[in-house]
Design goal:
The chain starts with about 20 loop residues before the first helix and ends with a strand. The chain has 4 helices and 3 strands, in the order H-E-E-H-H-H-E. It has one domain. By secondary structure, the protein is of the alpha+beta class. It has a 3-stranded antiparallel sheet with strand order 1-2-3.
């Protein structure tokens, strides 16, 4: 996922004999430019919706075009999907935001949909915990499951 709106942060021109690219190379550059814009917009949508739950900025995989420039061809944003220890209501709100972040781009990937589904399951567990907590006060959220206290990190992928 991309946060930068500029599509060509890395410029390393490859000199050609006549200083120009042939038609097929120009077409490839246009395709790479389009993909770069798509990837960056996709990742920006994830970042904007994830807010504080994003772990840093996006990471990208690049391809060097025939013009010598690097173009983002895929990317991801790491998000924290761990429950909020001792607070099922906060966990519910967090998982709702994670779902919105995962589905924020116009074209969520299969991995993005998987993240949304994982957040929905975690939200449901938190709802169950909140219900149980209200029925029998004194038991902490996630107290019996040390794995939940550790949480996890997932990647939203373009």
């Amino acid at each position: 996922m991309e946060i930068s709106s500029s599509s060509h942060a890395h410029t390393l021109e490859r000199p050609t004999a006549h200083g120009e690219l042939d038609a097929s190379d120009r077409k490839r550059v246009q395709e790479l430019q389009r993909r770069d814009r798509e990837v960056r917009a996709h990742e920006q949508a994830h970042m904007a919706a994830a807010g504080a739950h994003a772990n840093g900025g996006p990471t990208y995989q690049y391809e060097r075009g025939p013009d010598g420039k690097l173009y983002a061809t895929s990317g991801e944003v790491s998000v924290d999907t761990s429950p909020v220890a001792g607070d099922p209501q906060a966990t519910i709100r967090k998982m709702q935001q994670i779902k919105r972040a995962a589905l924020a781009p116009d074209d969520p990937s299969g991995a993005d949909r998987g993240v949304a589904a994982q957040a929905a399951r975690q939200e449901q567990r938190a709802r169950t915990e909140a219900r149980e907590e209200s029925e029998s006060p004194g038991e902490g959220y996630g107290a019996t499951d040390p794995a939940q206290a550790r949480g996890s990190l997932i990647d939203l992928v373009a």
